[in-house]
Amino acid sequence: MIAATAEQTEACGERLARALPRSLPQMLQIQLHGDLGAGKTTLARGFLQALGHAGVVRSPTYTLVESYAVGGVTVVHTDLYRLHDPGELEALGLRDLALKDHIWLVEWPERAGGRLPEADIDITLVAHPGFHSIDLEAASAAGVQWLARLQG
User: Fold this and answer.
1) How many Cα atoms sit within 13 Å of 103 on the Cβ side?
2) pTM of the entire structure?
3) How far is Cα of residue 126 from the mean position of the Cα atoms in its chain?
4) What is the reported pLDDT for 109?
5) Which of 24, 33, 37, 92 has the maximal Cβ count within 10 Å?
């Protein structure tokens, strides 16, 4: 996908949320990859708004974890940019949030050093002059089904 504006990046998140399976068989995880300013939080904002969140969505860079109860699910939005060591991940309490009807949106997952559960969808955002590219890749069987709903 190509997004020339923040609104188009949000729209990508909205489409992804609307394609969400009606009943979650397990926790689902989206890992958001990209440099600073690539649009990770903007995409997360569109995702959350499509599920019914009417408030502000900011990057959890300083709080590290924000939870939103929306649309019958709990979305856990986390930003791992400020982790200095993957061992710090345990203190965030994410293990306690690996529950059915929970969706994780994880910015900077590479900072976890492989300590996160496997992603269902990997999204890579890259800023280019004048536009951002957004590549979605299924990383699990649930992710394959989710992206099939998005494309169908």
Assistant:
1) 27
2) 0.90
3) 15
4) 94
5) 33
Cα radius of gyration (the chain):
14
DSSP state of 14: H
Task: Give residues with Cβ within 8 angstroms of 70, minimum separation 6.
Answer: 48, 51, 52, 53
Q: From the CB of residue 81, how many other CB atoms can be counted at a distance below 10 Å?
A: 15
Torsion angle defined by CA atoms of residues 133, 142, 47 and 6, in that order, rounded to the nearest 10 degrees:
0
Structure tokens at 32: 């958001």
Each residue's pLDDT tens digit, 68-112: 999 889 999 999 998 888 888 788 877 788 878 899 999 999 988
Torsion angles phi and psi, residue 118, rounded to 5: -60, 140
Residue 149 contacts residue 21 (beta carbons within 8 Å)? yes
User: What's the gap between Cα 139 and its chain centre?
Assistant: 13
What domains can be seen in the chain, in order of their start residue?
2-151 (3.40.50.300)
Tracing tokens 């965030």 back to the chain, one arrives at 92
* Triad 149, 119, 141: Cα angle to 5°: 45
